[in-house]
Design a protein that fits this description.
Elements (H helix, E strand, L loop, with lengths): L1 H14 L4 E5 L4 H12 L3 E8 L5 E7 L12 E3 L8 E2 L1 H4 L8 E6 L2 E4 H7 L3 E7 L1
Antiparallel strand pairs: 1-3, 2-3, 4-8, 5-8, 6-7, 6-8
Length: 131
């Protein structure tokens, strides 16, 4: 559940109106795909990987704001947690409420948002809702 720490840090940094989030740790394909979804949906402006002086690996995420410091990322609700996982089939993906937010699913094809999951007709584990 590596993404829980990432999502929590992004959410807290957005509440405190910070411009960047630094996460120390490892890089993986799943983490990169999750950040890529956040970038494509317009919740973050960019992200990069860097090594500091002690050869510690860091991921730097730049948060996106509208004019007058209004945040684009209002809330992240984690649906699947460590003690309970929620799964939805390809038929249930169509029934997700999609008024103005984005759902992120972990599927056999990797992390996908709800629109991509509908197009590819796949289901999976509901990770979070972003609005």
């Amino acid at each position: 559940m590596f993404y829980v720490n990432l999502l929590t840090k992004i959410k807290n940094s957005s509440y405190n109106k910070l411009k960047t989030v630094e996460i120390q740790g490892f890089a993986s394909k799943k983490l990169h795909n999750l950040l890529l979804i956040l970038y494509k949906e317009g919740y973050i402006s960019k992200f990069c990987y860097k090594l500091d002086k002690n050869d510690n690996f860091k991921i730097v995420i730049f948060l996106k704001y509208y004019k007058q410091n209004k945040k684009t990322l209002i809330n992240i609700k984690q649906i699947s947690k460590s003690n309970r996982s929620y799964y939805c089939s390809s038929k249930m993906v169509w029934k997700l409420k999609n008024s103005f937010g984005t759902y992120i699913l972990s599927t056999p094809l990797g992390f996908l948002n709800d629109v991509e999951a509908r197009q590819l007709n796949v289901g999976g584990k509901l990770i979070c809702a972003i609005y």
